[in-house]
Amino acid sequence: MEYISIPDILDQVAKGQIRVPAFQRGYVWEPDRVAYLMDSIYKRYPFGTLLFWRTKEKLSVERDLGPFKLPEPREDYPVDYVLDGQQRITSIFGTFQTSLPIESSPTWTDIYFDTEAEDSAQDTLFVALAPSDAIGARYFPIRTLFDPGAFRRATSQLPEEKVNRIDLVYTAFQQTQIPVQVSKTEDKATVAIIFERVNRQGVELDTLQLLSAWTWSEDFQLQEAFKDLTEELAPFGFEGVGGG
User: Which of 34, 36, 101, 241 is such that its CA lies 20 to 30 A from the CA of 49?
Assistant: First the structure.
């Protein structure tokens, strides 16, 4: 078992080392669910293990990481493709990163720490808010935690008791170590089987996603084939083929 910290996730995604294979579903979490994940991390509640496929070759067809366009990986680095934990990886990266631009996304909302909320084992201390709703000293933008300049600016006018509480938030996220299982097989059929079995334990995939995992190779991408077919049939009123 390996472990990865939040700063390492930010660094490795920004370098293009952590990537998403084409057969993964897209990013589907709602902002409130991201806020609850942050609350679980802060309170040191268990929130699952990540599963990576580590390989030296880059796939020809990949997905974006939620609303983020991933850079090309460094040539001398192995690449970690996310087989399980894509929603969590994307949520963590999107919450804290300041290095990549966000593509147009109607669902992405920044996460804030409520500095006036009472500590509670049940209720979340983190909320998803539009910047216009987070004006004032109550809601602290946790995006700034790993950006020293932004952190200084965000805390410069706050009273000492709030800064002390935010320091505890920073320490919790800085020290978090997320367990990672790593598969190093180069057999792509085995990778597809692992992905399919892992996802059957959680939220059920639809038929197209399962078939995409089982039939996936670098030369044949089922979801891409359906996308091309949909575009060809759209003028004839069949734009829903392969959609979901």
Answer: 101
Give the domain extent around 163: 2-205
Question: Are 140 and 214 members of one domain?
Answer: no
Shared domain for 143 and 34, answered yes or no, is yes
| Whether 181 and 212 share a structural domain | no
Assess contact for 77 and 18: CB atoms under 8 A. no
Q: How many residues does the chain have?
A: 244
pLDDT per residue, tens digit, the chain (244 aa), is: 899 999 999 999 999 999 998 878 788 899 999 999 999 999 999 999 999 999 987 777 788 898 898 888 876 778 999 999 999 999 999 999 988 877 666 668 999 999 999 999 999 999 999 989 998 899 999 999 999 999 999 999 999 999 999 999 999 999 999 999 999 988 877 887 787 777 665 445 454 454 455 455 555 454 555 455 456 555 655 455 444 4
Give dist(CA 37, CA 88) in Å, integer.
8
Whether residue 144 is found in the same domain as residue 225: no
Residue owning tokens 């804030």: 112
Residues 231 and 173 in one domain: no
Element (H, E) at 20: strand 18-21
Q: CB–CB of 65/89 below 8 Å?
A: yes
Q: Are 77 and 15 in contact (CB under 8 A)?
A: yes
The answer to whether residues 137 and 239 belong to one domain is no
Q: Tokens 């509670």 sit at which residue?
A: 120
The verdict on 186 and 95 lying in the same domain is: yes
Domain count, the chain: 2
Q: What is the CA radius of gyration of the chain?
A: 20
Same domain, 175 and 189: yes
